[in-house]
Amino acid sequence: MNSLNLKYNVSLKEKHTFGLEASAEAFVKIQNVSQIKTALQLPYKSKMVLGGGSNVVFTQDYLGLVMELDIKGIQVEKEYKNSIHLKVGGGENWHQTVLWTLRNNYGGLENLSLIPGKVGASPIQNIGAYGVELKDIFIKLKALEKSTGKVKTFFQKDCQFGYRDSFFKNKGKGKYIILEVYFSLTKNNHKLNTAYGAIKSELAKKKIENPTIQDISKAVIKIRRSKLPDPKKIGNAGSFFKNPIISKTKFKTIHKKFPKLVHYPAPNGKVKLAAGWLIDRCNWKGKSIGGIMVHPKQALVLTNQGKGEAKDLQKMIKKIITSVKKKYDVSLEAEVNLV
Ligand code: EPU
Q1: Is residue 165 lining ligand 1, measured as CB closer than 6 Å?
Q2: Fold matches, 2-69 and 74-186
Q3: How confident is the model at residue 2 (pLDDT cuts 50, 70, 90)?
Q4: Nearest residue CA, atom 36 of ligand 1?
Q5: Which of the chain's ends, N or C, has fewer CB atoms near its CB within 10 Å?
Q6: CATH number given to 74-186
Q7: CA triple 250-254-298, angle to 5 deg
Q8: What is the pLDDT of residues 61-75, one digit of tens each?
Q9: pLDDT of residue 224
Q10: Is position 225 annotated as part of the catalytic site?
Q11: How far is CA 264 from CA 130, 212, 244, 336, in A?
Q12: Domain spanning 2-69, CATH architecture
Protein backbone atom coordinates (compact mmCIF):
# COMPACT_ATOMS: atom_id res chain seq x y z
CA MET A 1 0.00 0.00 0.00
CA ASN A 2 1.40 3.27 -1.16
CA SER A 3 -1.49 5.63 -0.50
CA LEU A 4 -1.42 7.75 2.62
CA ASN A 5 -4.09 8.32 5.19
CA LEU A 6 -3.26 11.95 5.82
CA LYS A 7 -5.05 13.73 8.66
CA TYR A 8 -5.09 17.41 9.50
CA ASN A 9 -4.95 19.36 12.73
CA VAL A 10 -4.39 16.25 14.84
CA SER A 11 -3.95 16.42 18.61
CA LEU A 12 -0.52 15.19 19.75
CA LYS A 13 -1.53 14.87 23.41
CA GLU A 14 -1.91 11.09 23.16
CA LYS A 15 1.06 10.76 20.81
CA HIS A 16 3.76 11.69 23.34
CA THR A 17 3.96 10.19 26.79
CA PHE A 18 4.45 13.56 28.53
CA GLY A 19 0.96 14.42 27.28
CA LEU A 20 1.10 18.21 26.85
CA GLU A 21 -1.62 19.71 24.66
CA ALA A 22 -0.30 20.41 21.15
CA SER A 23 -1.42 19.71 17.61
CA ALA A 24 0.16 18.76 14.30
CA GLU A 25 -0.74 20.60 11.10
CA ALA A 26 -0.72 17.22 9.34
CA PHE A 27 -0.25 13.67 10.57
CA VAL A 28 0.27 10.34 8.87
CA LYS A 29 0.93 6.76 9.97
CA ILE A 30 3.69 5.06 7.97
CA GLN A 31 3.73 1.29 7.45
CA ASN A 32 6.33 0.75 4.74
CA VAL A 33 9.17 2.32 2.78
CA SER A 34 7.09 3.38 -0.20
CA GLN A 35 4.75 5.29 2.11
CA ILE A 36 7.75 7.10 3.60
CA LYS A 37 8.92 8.08 0.15
CA THR A 38 5.46 9.40 -0.77
CA ALA A 39 5.19 11.29 2.54
CA LEU A 40 8.61 12.88 2.06
CA GLN A 41 7.40 14.32 -1.27
CA LEU A 42 4.53 16.20 0.38
CA PRO A 43 4.94 19.99 0.31
CA TYR A 44 5.46 20.59 4.03
CA LYS A 45 8.49 22.62 5.06
CA SER A 46 8.99 20.70 8.29
CA LYS A 47 8.56 17.00 8.65
CA MET A 48 9.36 14.91 11.65
CA VAL A 49 9.30 11.24 12.51
CA LEU A 50 7.62 10.11 15.68
CA GLY A 51 8.27 6.74 17.32
CA GLY A 52 6.59 5.89 20.60
CA GLY A 53 6.69 9.53 21.70
CA SER A 54 8.41 8.63 24.95
CA ASN A 55 11.49 10.77 24.48
CA VAL A 56 9.98 13.77 22.77
CA VAL A 57 7.99 16.53 24.44
CA PHE A 58 5.80 18.76 22.28
CA THR A 59 5.88 22.20 23.88
CA GLN A 60 4.03 23.90 21.00
CA ASP A 61 1.91 23.10 17.94
CA TYR A 62 3.90 21.47 15.17
CA LEU A 63 3.70 23.38 11.88
CA GLY A 64 4.33 20.62 9.39
CA LEU A 65 3.91 16.90 8.92
CA VAL A 66 4.33 14.40 11.74
CA MET A 67 5.02 10.88 10.45
CA GLU A 68 4.29 8.17 12.96
CA LEU A 69 6.43 5.14 12.19
CA ASP A 70 4.54 1.87 12.36
CA ILE A 71 6.76 -0.65 10.53
CA LYS A 72 6.22 -4.05 12.13
CA GLY A 73 7.85 -7.48 12.23
CA ILE A 74 10.03 -9.61 14.55
CA GLN A 75 11.99 -12.32 12.80
CA VAL A 76 14.95 -14.60 13.47
CA GLU A 77 17.17 -13.75 10.53
CA LYS A 78 20.09 -16.10 11.22
CA GLU A 79 20.54 -18.94 13.64
CA TYR A 80 23.86 -20.21 14.98
CA LYS A 81 24.71 -22.86 17.56
CA ASN A 82 24.71 -20.46 20.49
CA SER A 83 23.15 -17.29 19.18
CA ILE A 84 20.66 -15.75 16.80
CA HIS A 85 20.36 -12.57 14.79
CA LEU A 86 16.99 -10.96 15.30
CA LYS A 87 15.52 -8.48 12.83
CA VAL A 88 12.91 -6.12 14.28
CA GLY A 89 10.76 -3.50 12.52
CA GLY A 90 11.33 0.05 13.78
CA GLY A 91 7.66 0.42 14.69
CA GLU A 92 7.57 -2.52 17.10
CA ASN A 93 7.04 -1.59 20.72
CA TRP A 94 10.33 -1.98 22.63
CA HIS A 95 9.02 -3.76 25.70
CA GLN A 96 6.81 -6.13 23.67
CA THR A 97 9.94 -7.04 21.70
CA VAL A 98 11.83 -7.75 24.93
CA LEU A 99 8.96 -9.97 26.11
CA TRP A 100 8.98 -11.82 22.77
CA THR A 101 12.71 -12.60 23.18
CA LEU A 102 12.14 -13.83 26.74
CA ARG A 103 9.29 -16.10 25.67
CA ASN A 104 11.68 -17.65 23.15
CA ASN A 105 14.50 -17.73 25.71
CA TYR A 106 16.83 -15.45 23.73
CA GLY A 107 19.13 -13.51 26.04
CA GLY A 108 20.47 -9.95 25.86
CA LEU A 109 17.52 -7.59 26.20
CA GLU A 110 16.33 -8.57 29.70
CA ASN A 111 17.98 -5.63 31.52
CA LEU A 112 16.25 -3.27 29.11
CA SER A 113 12.75 -4.44 30.07
CA LEU A 114 9.95 -1.89 30.36
CA ILE A 115 11.76 0.94 28.59
CA PRO A 116 9.03 2.88 26.84
CA GLY A 117 9.15 3.65 23.12
CA LYS A 118 9.70 1.84 19.86
CA VAL A 119 12.56 -0.23 18.50
CA GLY A 120 13.39 2.30 15.75
CA ALA A 121 14.13 4.96 18.35
CA SER A 122 16.32 2.73 20.51
CA PRO A 123 19.63 3.24 18.65
CA ILE A 124 19.19 7.02 18.36
CA GLN A 125 19.94 7.54 22.01
CA ASN A 126 21.56 4.16 22.65
CA ILE A 127 18.99 3.30 25.32
CA GLY A 128 20.40 1.82 28.49
CA ALA A 129 19.48 0.62 31.94
CA TYR A 130 20.91 -1.47 34.76
CA GLY A 131 24.35 -2.00 33.28
CA VAL A 132 23.36 -2.74 29.67
CA GLU A 133 23.20 -0.46 26.69
CA LEU A 134 21.69 -1.11 23.29
CA LYS A 135 25.16 -1.07 21.72
CA ASP A 136 26.04 -4.26 23.65
CA ILE A 137 23.66 -6.40 21.56
CA PHE A 138 23.40 -4.26 18.43
CA ILE A 139 24.56 -5.63 15.06
CA LYS A 140 23.29 -3.20 12.45
CA LEU A 141 20.33 -1.15 11.34
CA LYS A 142 18.76 -0.14 8.06
CA ALA A 143 17.71 3.46 7.60
CA LEU A 144 16.28 5.49 4.78
CA GLU A 145 18.20 8.62 3.90
CA LYS A 146 15.63 11.39 3.56
CA SER A 147 17.52 13.41 0.95
CA THR A 148 18.09 10.53 -1.49
CA GLY A 149 15.40 7.99 -0.59
CA LYS A 150 18.13 5.34 -0.43
CA VAL A 151 18.19 2.63 2.23
CA LYS A 152 21.58 2.45 3.97
CA THR A 153 23.02 -0.07 6.41
CA PHE A 154 24.75 1.20 9.55
CA PHE A 155 27.03 -1.11 11.55
CA GLN A 156 28.29 -0.49 15.12
CA LYS A 157 31.13 1.79 14.08
CA ASP A 158 28.89 3.86 11.80
CA CYS A 159 26.48 4.52 14.66
CA GLN A 160 29.15 6.12 16.92
CA PHE A 161 27.36 5.05 20.08
CA GLY A 162 28.08 6.91 23.31
CA TYR A 163 26.23 7.44 26.57
CA ARG A 164 22.63 8.19 25.44
CA ASP A 165 24.18 9.30 22.19
CA SER A 166 24.81 8.25 18.59
CA PHE A 167 25.49 9.51 15.07
CA PHE A 168 21.71 9.98 14.74
CA LYS A 169 21.72 12.63 17.47
CA ASN A 170 24.71 14.44 15.97
CA LYS A 171 25.81 14.55 12.32
CA GLY A 172 22.98 12.30 11.24
CA LYS A 173 20.30 14.23 13.14
CA GLY A 174 17.02 14.45 11.24
CA LYS A 175 18.56 12.92 8.11
CA TYR A 176 17.54 9.28 8.45
CA ILE A 177 14.48 7.21 9.21
CA ILE A 178 15.32 3.97 10.99
CA LEU A 179 13.42 1.09 9.38
CA GLU A 180 14.73 -2.00 11.13
CA VAL A 181 17.25 -2.95 13.79
CA TYR A 182 19.25 -6.21 14.08
CA PHE A 183 20.28 -7.67 17.43
CA SER A 184 22.64 -10.48 18.39
CA LEU A 185 21.07 -12.56 21.16
CA THR A 186 22.18 -15.68 22.98
CA LYS A 187 20.34 -19.02 22.77
CA ASN A 188 22.11 -20.54 25.76
CA ASN A 189 24.96 -19.66 28.14
CA HIS A 190 23.30 -16.27 28.57
CA LYS A 191 25.60 -13.50 29.75
CA LEU A 192 23.82 -12.20 32.80
CA ASN A 193 24.25 -8.63 34.04
CA THR A 194 23.34 -8.62 37.70
CA ALA A 195 26.03 -6.30 39.03
CA TYR A 196 23.70 -3.32 39.37
CA GLY A 197 22.92 -2.91 43.07
CA ALA A 198 19.13 -2.77 42.78
CA ILE A 199 19.02 -5.96 40.71
CA LYS A 200 21.25 -7.78 43.15
CA SER A 201 19.09 -6.87 46.11
CA GLU A 202 15.85 -7.68 44.26
CA LEU A 203 17.15 -11.18 43.42
CA ALA A 204 18.44 -11.66 46.97
CA LYS A 205 15.03 -10.66 48.33
CA LYS A 206 13.49 -13.45 46.28
CA LYS A 207 16.30 -15.84 47.25
CA ILE A 208 17.19 -16.45 43.61
CA GLU A 209 20.79 -17.60 43.39
CA ASN A 210 20.99 -18.70 39.78
CA PRO A 211 18.75 -16.28 37.96
CA THR A 212 17.37 -16.88 34.47
CA ILE A 213 17.00 -14.05 31.97
CA GLN A 214 13.29 -14.10 32.83
CA ASP A 215 14.11 -13.59 36.53
CA ILE A 216 16.28 -10.59 35.65
CA SER A 217 13.56 -9.08 33.51
CA LYS A 218 11.07 -9.49 36.36
CA ALA A 219 13.50 -7.82 38.78
CA VAL A 220 14.07 -4.91 36.39
CA ILE A 221 10.32 -4.48 35.88
CA LYS A 222 9.80 -4.41 39.63
CA ILE A 223 12.55 -1.81 40.18
CA ARG A 224 11.34 0.40 37.35
CA ARG A 225 7.71 0.22 38.54
CA SER A 226 8.77 1.20 42.06
CA LYS A 227 10.69 4.31 40.98
CA LEU A 228 9.33 5.44 37.66
CA PRO A 229 5.78 6.62 37.06
CA ASP A 230 3.72 4.65 34.52
CA PRO A 231 3.31 7.00 31.52
CA LYS A 232 -0.16 5.56 30.92
CA LYS A 233 -1.22 6.98 34.27
CA ILE A 234 1.03 10.01 34.81
CA GLY A 235 2.51 11.84 31.84
CA ASN A 236 6.32 11.63 31.80
CA ALA A 237 9.24 11.04 29.48
CA GLY A 238 11.52 8.93 31.69
CA SER A 239 14.77 10.59 32.71
CA PHE A 240 14.34 14.21 31.73
CA PHE A 241 18.03 15.16 32.00
CA LYS A 242 21.22 13.34 31.06
CA ASN A 243 23.67 12.34 33.73
CA PRO A 244 26.35 15.00 33.20
CA ILE A 245 29.88 13.95 32.25
CA ILE A 246 32.64 16.18 33.60
CA SER A 247 36.45 16.26 33.68
CA LYS A 248 38.38 14.58 36.49
CA THR A 249 39.78 17.94 37.61
CA LYS A 250 36.35 19.47 37.92
CA PHE A 251 35.09 16.34 39.66
CA LYS A 252 37.84 16.60 42.28
CA THR A 253 36.91 20.19 43.09
CA ILE A 254 33.22 19.38 43.52
CA HIS A 255 33.88 16.12 45.38
CA LYS A 256 36.01 17.91 47.95
CA LYS A 257 33.08 20.14 48.81
CA PHE A 258 30.43 17.39 48.54
CA PRO A 259 32.00 14.04 49.51
CA LYS A 260 28.68 12.18 49.08
CA LEU A 261 28.44 13.11 45.39
CA VAL A 262 27.22 10.03 43.44
CA HIS A 263 29.61 9.39 40.56
CA TYR A 264 30.65 6.73 38.06
CA PRO A 265 33.70 6.35 35.84
CA ALA A 266 33.08 7.51 32.25
CA PRO A 267 35.16 6.93 29.09
CA ASN A 268 38.42 8.85 28.57
CA GLY A 269 39.12 9.36 32.26
CA LYS A 270 36.03 11.50 32.72
CA VAL A 271 33.44 11.20 35.49
CA LYS A 272 29.67 10.81 35.20
CA LEU A 273 27.48 12.30 37.93
CA ALA A 274 23.97 11.19 38.87
CA ALA A 275 21.71 14.04 37.74
CA GLY A 276 18.91 12.62 39.91
CA TRP A 277 21.10 12.97 42.99
CA LEU A 278 22.09 16.56 42.13
CA ILE A 279 18.47 17.61 41.53
CA ASP A 280 17.34 15.78 44.66
CA ARG A 281 19.97 17.60 46.76
CA CYS A 282 18.62 20.89 45.44
CA ASN A 283 15.34 19.84 47.10
CA TRP A 284 13.25 19.41 43.99
CA LYS A 285 11.58 16.08 44.75
CA GLY A 286 7.79 16.48 44.84
CA LYS A 287 7.91 20.20 43.95
CA SER A 288 5.46 21.58 41.36
CA ILE A 289 5.10 24.52 39.06
CA GLY A 290 1.52 24.60 37.80
CA GLY A 291 0.68 21.07 36.67
CA ILE A 292 4.30 19.99 36.26
CA MET A 293 5.88 18.05 39.13
CA VAL A 294 9.26 16.57 39.95
CA HIS A 295 8.52 12.91 40.64
CA PRO A 296 8.56 12.36 44.41
CA LYS A 297 10.43 9.03 44.08
CA GLN A 298 12.98 9.97 41.41
CA ALA A 299 14.12 13.56 40.93
CA LEU A 300 15.34 12.91 37.39
CA VAL A 301 11.78 12.43 36.16
CA LEU A 302 9.42 15.33 35.51
CA THR A 303 5.72 14.57 35.32
CA ASN A 304 2.60 16.12 33.88
CA GLN A 305 -0.08 15.94 36.53
CA GLY A 306 -2.82 16.03 33.90
CA LYS A 307 -3.23 19.63 32.89
CA GLY A 308 0.44 20.56 32.74
CA GLU A 309 1.36 23.41 30.43
CA ALA A 310 4.45 23.97 28.33
CA LYS A 311 5.19 27.36 29.92
CA ASP A 312 5.35 25.77 33.37
CA LEU A 313 7.54 22.97 32.09
CA GLN A 314 9.93 25.52 30.55
CA LYS A 315 10.01 27.41 33.85
CA MET A 316 10.71 24.22 35.77
CA ILE A 317 13.53 23.16 33.42
CA LYS A 318 15.19 26.57 33.75
CA LYS A 319 14.88 26.65 37.52
CA ILE A 320 16.25 23.14 37.96
CA ILE A 321 19.21 23.83 35.66
CA THR A 322 19.93 27.13 37.44
CA SER A 323 19.80 25.64 40.94
CA VAL A 324 22.12 22.72 40.06
CA LYS A 325 24.53 25.12 38.35
CA LYS A 326 24.53 27.42 41.36
CA LYS A 327 25.11 24.72 43.97
CA TYR A 328 27.39 22.32 42.08
CA ASP A 329 28.65 24.35 39.10
CA VAL A 330 27.43 21.57 36.80
CA SER A 331 25.35 22.21 33.67
CA LEU A 332 22.47 19.81 33.15
CA GLU A 333 21.20 19.08 29.67
CA ALA A 334 17.80 17.71 28.71
CA GLU A 335 17.85 14.06 27.70
CA VAL A 336 14.46 14.35 26.05
CA ASN A 337 13.92 16.05 22.76
CA LEU A 338 11.95 19.28 23.22
CA VAL A 339 9.99 20.23 20.10
N1 EPU B 1 19.33 9.49 43.24
C2 EPU B 1 18.96 10.26 44.30
N3 EPU B 1 17.76 10.90 44.26
C4 EPU B 1 16.91 10.79 43.20
C5 EPU B 1 17.30 10.01 42.12
C6 EPU B 1 18.52 9.36 42.14
O7 EPU B 1 19.69 10.39 45.28
O8 EPU B 1 15.85 11.42 43.24
C9 EPU B 1 20.60 8.75 43.29
C10 EPU B 1 20.33 7.27 43.47
O11 EPU B 1 20.23 6.89 44.78
C12 EPU B 1 21.55 6.66 42.83
C13 EPU B 1 21.89 7.65 41.71
O14 EPU B 1 21.26 8.88 42.06
O15 EPU B 1 22.63 6.64 43.72
C16 EPU B 1 21.44 7.19 40.35
O17 EPU B 1 20.05 6.94 40.33
P18 EPU B 1 19.42 5.67 39.56
O19 EPU B 1 20.18 4.46 39.83
O20 EPU B 1 17.97 5.68 39.79
O21 EPU B 1 19.70 5.94 38.03
P22 EPU B 1 19.73 7.28 37.21
O23 EPU B 1 21.13 7.67 36.95
O24 EPU B 1 18.83 8.26 37.85
C25 EPU B 1 19.83 6.06 34.89
C26 EPU B 1 19.12 6.20 33.57
C27 EPU B 1 17.76 5.52 33.60
C28 EPU B 1 17.96 4.06 33.94
C29 EPU B 1 18.70 3.96 35.29
C30 EPU B 1 19.04 2.54 35.66
C31 EPU B 1 19.93 8.26 32.56
C32 EPU B 1 19.66 9.70 32.27
N33 EPU B 1 18.98 7.62 33.24
O34 EPU B 1 19.05 6.79 35.84
O35 EPU B 1 17.20 5.62 32.31
O36 EPU B 1 16.72 3.38 34.02
O37 EPU B 1 19.94 4.69 35.21
O38 EPU B 1 20.06 2.06 34.86
O39 EPU B 1 20.98 7.75 32.19
C40 EPU B 1 15.81 6.94 30.90
O41 EPU B 1 16.80 7.16 30.19
O42 EPU B 1 14.68 7.44 30.60
C43 EPU B 1 15.93 6.17 32.11
C44 EPU B 1 14.92 6.00 32.95
Answers
A1: no
A2: no
A3: low
A4: 129
A5: N
A6: 3.30.465.10
A7: 110
A8: 999 999 999 999 999
A9: 93
A10: no
A11: 13, 27, 11, 22
A12: 2-Layer Sandwich (3.30)
